[in-house]
Amino acid sequence: MGQFSVDSLYHPDLHALCELPEISCKIFSKENSYFLYIIVVFRNDSSQGELRANRFIELYDIKREIMQVLRDESPELKSIKSEIIIAREMGELFSYASEEIDSYIKQMNDRLSQIKARMPVT
């Protein structure tokens, strides 16, 4: 499974993928945009392919909801906080090793700490 973004449903890469017999794609708009689409690519000859693609979309929607709840935060904080929440399951979905996921989450937490340290105390 993998994912990428395109700015048009007429993008040649998307059409090339759709012609492959064992590949399927799920398409959804990115951040409520009419001009950016996320393409989730999966093997349709795998029993887990579509299930994983659907879960990816669910996790992406969870990230959007979290960012909406954090609407008063800066874009950077919204991005980091929402990423920390979904990172483990998203990493597992893409079959990253536990150590890689832990390292990524630590990196995100470190960035969050750095940003908070720069913020004025109220």
Describe what this molecule looks like in 3D.
- Belongs to the NleE/OspZ family.
- Keywords: Host nucleus, Secreted, Virulence.
- This is NleE.
- It is found in: Host nucleus; Secreted.
- Pfam families: NleE (PF20798).
- It is a single chain.
- This protein is 56% helix and 16% strand.
- It contains four helices and three strands.
- With 122 residues, the chain is an alpha+beta fold.
- 7% of the residues are buried.
- The chain has one domain.
- The mean pLDDT is 91.
- A three-stranded antiparallel sheet has the order 1-3-2, sandwiched between helices.
- It starts with a strand and ends with a helix.
- Helix 2 runs antiparallel to helix 3 (75-93).
Distance between the termini: 45 Å
Q: Helix count, per DSSP?
A: 4
Strand portion: 15-25%
* Largest sheet properties: 3 strands, antiparallel
Based on DSSP secondary structure assignment, what is the total number of beta strands? 3
Structural class: alpha+beta
What is the arithmetic mean of pLDDT? 91
List the domain count as a whole number: 1
Measured as a percent range, the helix fraction is 55-70%
> How is the largest sheet built, in terms of strand order?
1-3-2
Q: Overall 3D geometry?
A: globular
- Using only C-alpha atoms, the radius of gyration works out to 17 Å
Low-pLDDT residue spans: none
Helices and strands, in N-to-C order?
EHEEHHH
Protein name: NleE
Family: Belongs to the NleE/OspZ family.
Subcellular location: Host nucleus; Secreted
InterPro entries: NleE/OspZ
